[in-house]
Amino acid sequence: MIIDKVLLATDLSPMSQLVTDCVAEMAAVGVKEAVLVHVIDIRAEGSPAVASKDQQNERMLELNRIQLEARGIKVKTIQPVGFPAHEIVSIANQEQVSMIAIASHGEGYIKQIFLGSTATDVIRISDVPVLLLKGREAAPASRPISWNIFRRVLVPLDFSVHSDYLLQIIKDDSALFRDVVLFSVIERARNQMELLALLYEKERQLDLIKKELEELGTRVTVQYGQGAASLNIMETADQENVSLILMATRGQGLIKELMLGSTAHAVARRSKQPLLLIPSRG
Hints:
With 282 residues, the chain is of the alpha/beta class. The chain folds into 2 domains: 5-133, HUPs (Rossmann fold, 3-Layer(aba) Sandwich), CATH 3.40.50.620; 153-278, HUPs (Rossmann fold, 3-Layer(aba) Sandwich). The protein is built from 8 helices and 12 strands. Helix 1 (14-25) links the parallel strand 1 (5-9) and strand 2. The model is unreliable at 106-116, 137-144 and 251-261 (pLDDT under 50).
């Protein structure tokens, strides 16, 4: 997975500023270009409140541009009028970006993750990976937050073709994914015998994957869970102190599809950690 061009979706809130900080930091892992997108919601366009913010928004976008360029990132700024999610995804496709970075909390149209919000809609309709960043307390300017987003990555697997696609991404860029936690959950079993049989099969499969990744120089930890998939994923993310959760937006069982109540949606809405959501090619 080559991440060299990122669309940074901003509503110019404090949380969106942290997204800018994260993308600027990603210059160290190969980001060379950023498309800074601030959508003027067509439902608010023309109102006195929007008009009064125009000059302030221009100044904030300019500060974001300067911050990114200081890291050697080439910046293109776009301020379209329209429906935010559709404008963001459309621009991402036009600009052929590697990834969309968006905040899950903030002001305006990126306030929280719930069905119908901008972040949810971007994840649902995007054909490119989406990095969903979670809220953090603001740090003093003298001690800026360091995201170190790929420091330790949790990878939930359901052994479908979609999981295979995630694993191929990790194998193709083992220099980026240096430390991963492979996780699989048994959501249900009819009896103890079936539970043991399922656990044995998962251990066998994960052991093979672990050896393949270790041969590429990746540090690998293997964990298992039983019960509700989303709760197990979030608990493991906390216990393993991961910096990122990598998930496919389609799959079977564990990661079936992104909709209200699905595992991916629940994790996106409730996890403390950032998520990198990959539209499966399977």
